[in-house]
Amino acid sequence: MNLPPDGKSRDQVNAELDDALTKDADWMGGRIWSLVYYAGDDVAAVLRDAYSKAIFTNGLGPDAFKSLKKFESEVVAMTASLLGEPEAIGNMTSGGTESILMAVKTARDRAREEKGISEPEMVLPVSAHPAFDKSAQYLGVKAIHAPLGDDLRVDVSAMQEAITPNTVLMVGSAPNFPFGTIDPIPEIAAAASERDIPCHVDACVGGFLLPFWERLGHEVRPWDFRVPGVSSISADCHKYGYAARGASTIMYRDPAYRRYQFFAVTDWPGGLYGSPTMTGSRPGGAIAAAWACMNYLGEAGYLRLAEKIVGATKGLQDGIRATPGLKILGEPDVSLFAVGSDEFDIYVLSEALGARGWFPDRQQLPPSLHFMVTPAHAAIVDEFLTTLREAVADVREKGGKSTGAGVYGSVVGMSDRGMVRNVIMDFIDGLTREREEAK
């Protein structure tokens, strides 16, 4: 495809944009169960206003853009208070993956300088987000995965056995993505602290929801900076913080530890260059929108949205448990959960739901469907459960075998890991064919 020779009119560009967007899944109507955290039209308007006002600003230059320095500092300060340590410090990043990358980089560099470790390892649950494996590959850190117990939380004794003199980081999730369970953070942190190893809590999903879940009177397993030994926490503003995409935080209890996160070059002809995170230029719109969203919602707004999620989650789980042939895996701690079946191929149910306009994600090991409840789902609980019961009855009657695997980023819903690469390559080849056909 070449550039249009004379350019298109603004109306034509907008018309093509609108047409393309109509082909997306109905995320606003709650038809998908991941990827989007929609808090309502009013919040969306606040995000659009803030993002557009700051669209040309660049977080690389806080001296030039003092507004972004203010916005980021205040987002970090508000996040610190939510995470149980008002004195915690940190930075905003582009998302959970970058926050996790920075946590691993910080641990690696601290171990390199203070302990002389040249072959770093980190110990983490098999349920930890693949961003840790990406970080391991990018940063030269060996990832050692510990199994889960029957409760779908990491086996801490297995983590302890995996510690070696080269261990630079131990990891727990609050909650993990696949099953929505919070790992035994106090036990992980204690095991790490005994050996002078940092402990990172991945709360990219839960960081902006669990504090309000607790304030609504629900019991929440210990997970934040109130737990001794927790060194760093990642929490995404653009998940249950409801900010625009491209906004996360990486937080540290100890300023001396965070200094290992920074990158600096002092002998570049262009001048002194320093960067706290992976990116150089940073879109100011995402920073401004996160600040605007947090100030607009305030504690009352986040509590209101959390209450909607609590109600929707309970309604969905009660309805699923009452549906013959289905089961919820483990005992989820928050608004994420996985659904499996001992009676039929759960992927066939996914296809039956897809044919009816509903799109849960597929998971593997074991095969299951993944649900992440947001405020957008509060209005569709009864409608979805009615459709789910119809789809289950249809699958139980007709049976069938799944015709393919679902892809969520690098998470592939299949039981054969050897097929992962082929499926991803087939997906890429399909996109290439579509481009050729479009020509």
Structure description:
The structure is a single chain. With 439 residues, this protein is of the alpha/beta class. It has 2 domains: 249 residues, Type I PLP-dependent aspartate aminotransferase-like (Major domain) (Aspartate Aminotransferase, domain 2, 3-Layer(aba) Sandwich), CATH 3.40.640; 117 residues, Aspartate Aminotransferase, domain 1. Helix content is 42%, strand content 14%. The strands form 4 sheets. It has a 7-stranded mixed sheet, with helices on both faces. The chain has a 4-stranded antiparallel sheet with strand order 10-11-13-12. A hairpin with a 7-residue loop joins strand 8 and strand 9.
Topology:
Elements: H1 10-21, H2 41-53, H3 66-82, E1 89-93, H4 96-115, E2 121-125, H5 131-139, E3 142-146, H6 156-162, E4 167-173, H7 185-194, E5 199-202, H8 210-215, E6 230-236, E7 248-252, H9 255-258, E8 263-265, E9 273-275, H10 284-321, E10 327-328, E11 336-340, H11 346-355, E12 361-363, E13 368-372, H12 381-398, E14 407-408, E15 411-412, H13 420-438
Parallel strand pairs: 2-3, 2-4, 4-5, 5-6
Antiparallel strand pairs: 1-7, 6-7, 8-9, 10-11, 11-13, 12-13, 14-15
